[in-house]
Amino acid sequence: MEKIPSPGASASLCVVLILSSFAVVQLLGPTLQFSPLGTIVGGVLCSGFSFLLVTLLGNLQELTSPSRSQGHVEAIVSIAGAATVAWTIHPVSATVCTFFSVVTVWYISRVSKEVYRGAGTSNTKKTARSRR
């Protein structure tokens, strides 16, 4: 049986990684904003920031109220936060970041549905056949 890390440990790791990635983006910002490819790379880097932020917010929600929720607010806040960080590089970076962040949140939602599909149910459909 796998040991699942606690939400507190995961949130702590996310905080460290968010601060580190923010520092890297701010240090590379002047370099990235002077080339078209750099602005796209900056947007992709900031979409990783979005992934970390949605993970942090989900862990904080798990710590404060263990009931499961949809996570729409966390997704919107993380996309907006990542786009704001990307905007410090270039407006194109913010657009690229928003696109990749939406794709990331969609993929997280898809994986979450697979993991939490219904712990007590099987994946097979039961159909009733009637004879006439």
- State the helical fraction: over 70%
> Which residues sit in consecutive blocks of at least 5 with pLDDT less than 50?
none
How many strands, what sense, and barrel or not for the largest sheet? none
Number of domains: 1
Element pattern in H and E: HHHH
Q: How would you classify the quaternary structure?
A: single chain
Structural class: mainly alpha
In round numbers, the mean pLDDT is 84
Number of contiguous helices: 4
Total count of strands:
0
Subcellular location: Membrane
Membrane topology: Multi-pass membrane protein
Organism: Rhodosorus marinus
InterPro entries: KRTCAP2
Describe the protein's architecture and organization.
- This protein has one domain (7-21, 40-119).
- Helix 1 (7-32) runs antiparallel to helix 2 (36-64) and helix 2 (36-64) crosses helix 4 (91-115).
- The chain has helices at 7-32, 36-64, 72-87, 91-115.
- The chain has four helices and no strands.
- The model has no long low-confidence stretch (mean pLDDT 84).
- Keywords: Membrane, Transmembrane, Transmembrane helix.
- Its main location: membrane.
Brief sketch in words of this structure:
Helices cover 73% and strands 0% of the residues. The protein has 132 residues and is mainly alpha-helical. It is found in: Membrane.
Which helices and strands occur, and which strands form pairs?
Blueprint: H1 7-32, H2 36-64, H3 72-87, H4 91-115
Helix pairs in contact: 1-2, 2-3, 2-4, 3-4
